[in-house]
């Protein structure tokens, strides 16, 4: 059932656990409910924001407008052939519960994305990725409602313009479409990716390399260095890993031989932002309740009652020092509101 709330606390709706209030908060569980609301309600014309699981949001102040929160659930089988299934998943299903469900049903493709916080509807927005896999590899279509026309729209994978932690929903269509469902094509036959980082090494302890064991290993690796938002507020990687010209990366590498780099193409190289931040001596630092995680410097944390603007100030100080020491501008992965 749809409901409209006023002066509503967003603390439980962002994984940073930041206290901020929304003037209006509209929760809905079907495409009909949101269409009716937008066609008949005056406040639908005030400034608005679409909020999923809040796993990539930093509220720096109260939001004096309308928050639209889709609460659509369910996993439906749309199509099946010998090799794969096409699933339609409601935007407010917890991402990791969906991954667990896929693994339990012997479906391949998202096991490396185990334990990423947030909901299914956020997966296409920032093309979530980890351990050598990105959501774009399994997303077939994204169903949304256009705020302008109030009509349902289907975006094919190509129209989503997926890129590293990016999509059309973060660029020209930012805040213009409410994602209601995501359609995933998952494989019935094993296609495992175990060559990223520590995965294959961790798998040596198991007698078989299978779907369930990979999920277990990924969960173990993530838990060893990424804080659980239920225990310590955070939004995963706060910055993107910067992509720089190959010449610049080579010059830095000559000076700092331990610098972790990843080839992007012939002319560009990606550098591990966590390493850059650690080199500037931020790892584990704390200013009031805003801090840098002790095991992964790319993650900013809320030790309790940090304000959004305090986290943002820390982020800006980090950016300045990385720019000063390495001449590299870090871009935020998190959306500051
Ligand atoms: N490193 C440091 N110090 C740190 C953190 C990292 O030296 O404080 C070094 C590591 O030793 C390693 C390299 O940097 O050599 C890369 O670290 P890691 O493997 O932890 O991955 P990352 O590049 O920091 C990215 C994603 C993560 C994803 C992991 C694993 C981005 C912005 N982040 O992190 O995604 O889980 O790879 O695939 O691309 C997220 O987006 O929220 C997220 C957690």
What does this entry look like structurally?
It is a single chain. By secondary structure, the chain is an alpha+beta fold. The chain folds into 3 domains: 68 residues, Uridine Diphospho-n-acetylenolpyruvylglucosamine Reductase, domain 2, CATH 3.30.43.10; 113 residues, Uridine Diphospho-n-acetylenolpyruvylglucosamine Reductase, domain 3 (2-Layer Sandwich); 104 residues, UDP-N-acetylenolpyruvoylglucosamine reductase, C-terminal domain (Uridine Diphospho-n-acetylenolpyruvylglucosamine Reductase, domain 1), CATH 3.90.78.10. Helix content is 24%, strand content 28%. The chain contains 8 helices and 20 strands. The chain has a 5-stranded antiparallel β-sheet with strand order 6-7-12-10-11, with no helix packed on it. The protein has a 4-stranded mixed β-sheet with strand order 1-2-5-3. A 4-stranded antiparallel β-sheet has the order 13-19-18-17, with helices on one face. A hairpin with a 3-residue loop joins strand 6 and strand 7. It starts with a strand and ends with a strand.
Helix-strand makeup class: alpha+beta
Helix percentage range: 10-25%
Into how many domains do the coordinates divide? 3
Name the poorly predicted regions.
Answer: none
Order of secondary-structure elements: EEHEEEEEHHEEEEEHHEEHEEHEEEHE
Strands of the widest sheet, in order across it, are 6-7-12-10-11
CATH class of the largest domain: Alpha Beta
Chain-averaged pLDDT = 93
Strand content: 25-35%
CATH architecture of the largest domain: 2-Layer Sandwich
Largest sheet: number of strands, sense, barrel closure: 5 strands, antiparallel
Number of helices: 8
Termini separation comes to 27 Å
Kindly identify the CATH topology of the largest domain: Uridine Diphospho-n-acetylenolpyruvylglucosamine Reductase, domain 3
């Amino acid at each position: 059932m749809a409901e409209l709330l006023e002066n509503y606390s967003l603390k439980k709706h962002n994984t940073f656990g930041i206290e901020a209030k929304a003037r209006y908060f509209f929760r809905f569980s079907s495409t009909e409910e949101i269409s009716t609301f937008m066609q008949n309600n005056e406040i639908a014309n005030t400034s608005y924001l679409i909020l999923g699981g809040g796993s990539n949001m930093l509220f720096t102040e109260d939001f004096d407008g309308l928050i639209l929160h889709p609460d659509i659930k369910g996993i439906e089988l749309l199509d099946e052939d010998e090799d794969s299934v096409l699933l339609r998943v409601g935007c407010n299903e917890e991402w990791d519960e969906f991954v667990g469900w896929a693994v339990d049903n012997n479906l391949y493709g998202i096991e490396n994305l185990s334990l990423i916080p947030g909901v299914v509807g956020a997966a296409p927005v920032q093309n979530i990725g980890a351990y050598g896999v990105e959501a774009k590899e399994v997303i077939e279509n994204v169903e949304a409602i256009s705020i302008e026309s109030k009509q349902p729209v289907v975006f094919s994978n190509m129209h989503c313009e997926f890129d590293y932690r990016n999509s059309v929903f973060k660029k020209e269509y930012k805040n213009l479409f409410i994602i209601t469902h995501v359609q995933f094509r998952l494989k019935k036959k094993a296609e495992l990716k175990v060559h990223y980082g520590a995965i294959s090494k961790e798998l040596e302890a198991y007698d078989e390399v299978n779907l369930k064991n990979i999920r277990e290993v990924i969960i173990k690796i993530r838990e060893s260095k990424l804080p659980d938002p239920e225990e310590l507020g955070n939004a995963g990687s706060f910055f993107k890993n910067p992509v720089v010209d190959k010449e610049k990366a080579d010059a830095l590498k000559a000076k700092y031989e331990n610098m972790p780099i990843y080839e992007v193409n012939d002319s560009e190289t990606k550098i591990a932002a966590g390493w850059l931040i650690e080199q500037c001596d931020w790892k584990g630092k704390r200013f009031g309740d805003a801090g840098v995680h002790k095991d992964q410097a790319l993650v900013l944390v809320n030790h309790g009652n940090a304000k959004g603007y305090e986290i943002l100030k820390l982020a800006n100080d980090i950016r300045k020092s990385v720019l000063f020491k390495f001449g590299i501008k870090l871009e935020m992965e998190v959306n500051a509101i």
